Each structure stands twice: as structure tokens, then as C-alpha cells.
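Researcher: I need the complex structure. Ligand is cytidine-5'-monophosphate. Inputs:
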Amino acid sequence: MSPYGVITFDGPAASGKSSVAQRIAAALDLPVVSSGLLYRAATLIAEGAQIDLDDEEAVMARLRRHDVELEPVHDGNRVRLDGADVTETLHTDEVDGSVSAVARHPRVRSWVSEHLRRVAPPFVIDGRDMGTVVFPEASDKFYLTASPEVRAKRRVGERAADLERVAHAIRRRDALDAHQLVPANDAQRIDTDPLTLDEVVALVLEALRARRASSVGAPTAGPTTDHAEEC
Ligand code: C5P
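Model: Output:
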């Protein structure tokens, strides 16, 4: 039996949570789930119907007409819309620009949560409110942070021309997502500003290992380090 249940990685856009979640899932041989893909799929559906994205009832009426399936696989997720794989169309600038408006509707959030709770543990999942709202009983919770400037650099490299535009888009998405960006009390927070991806992955694997070594099968709060703290 796997010693893991649900391992959550929450944090703002481009904080590295999906890269870290994928690496941890690969290291532990677990599937990885990206909750943002379902918000993106809901946005794709609403945009395709050309309805007012602020109209929650209209968005929900559209979602009810479609069958959306999330297929968690080890190297990412696939999303099927009425049987067709739409995964590659979910990361356009258009979806990026509208997804927060769709994700703020409570009934859209319930629709996403219901899809996610159908996935059988163990798995690793990334999002904004996985450790607080969707899986409060998760076995292990992490919250990754980084400054908007560092996140913009990670996204576009050092290209100064794009840097300010991307940092601006990231700050805008932080503001729009602020409501769901609250770390769980029992999450281990990691400030990734001074860390490489390899270093964050090593820190998380060590925390997971240490918890299991100290409490066979019953994970508790992890150790604090220079870059990680309980919040
Ligand atoms: O993680 P990703 O960038 O794919 O998420 C896209 C958007 O979906 C976020 O900007 C946010 O508006 C929404 N989201 C959310 N709650 C989550 C995951 C994503 O509100 N758990």
C-alpha cells in the first residue's frame, strides 16, 4: 500500500507548483493532477459559446451541456471535452486572460471540485485551494511562493522586452485569484525565490521522507528549514 494519500501544491501563477508537482509525482511514481486545467476547460467552453463570462448561470448552463473528463497520467494530465482531447488548447493567451473571471464563480468552483474528488488517491495535485477547500484532509500540503519578478523571469527567461508585460499579467492574475490564494494552516510554505527547481524538489522529498520516518504512516507537520516555514 502506498504511504501517500493526496499531496497538494498550492501557490500563485508561475510559482513553479506544477513543475514541482510533476517532479515529485515522478519521483514517487504517482499520478499528477493539475486542477487549473479544469478551470481552463470551463473557460474554453464558455468562450466558445460567446456568453458573458460574468454570468454564472449562463456559464453553468454551458458546462452542464458538456462532458469534461480529466485523465491523470504520470507525465501531466489530459482533458477530454466530449471525448476529444483539448489539452493543447488550454494554455492560450485568451484562456489565460479570462480564466480568473470564470474561476471566481462559486458554482464553477464546485463543478471543478466534484471532478477532482472523483480521482482515486494516491496522487499529487497542484492548484490554489487544494489544501484548504478541495482536499483539507490531504496527507501532505505545500504552499510555494515567489516574487512576481522572479516568476516572470522563469516564464520568459531573461528577455527584458517581455519581462515587464509578463510580470504585469502575473500581478493582475494574483489580484484576481487573491480570494483562493490563502495557504492552509498546516501547509509547509516554501519561498522559492532563491532556489532552483532541483533544490525545491529536494526540499520537498526530504520533508516527505522525514515525516514518514518520524510518524510511521501518520504524516504530521514537516520540518522547517532556511527556506521553508509552517504558515
Ligand atoms: O494553475 P493554472 O495557471 O493553470 O490555473 C489557471 C487559473 O485557474 C488560475 O489563474 C485561477 O484563476 C484558476 N484556478 C483556481 N483554483 C485552482 C486552480 C486554478 O482558481 N485550484
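Model: Summary of the prediction. The chain has two domains: 9-14+127-214, 31-121.
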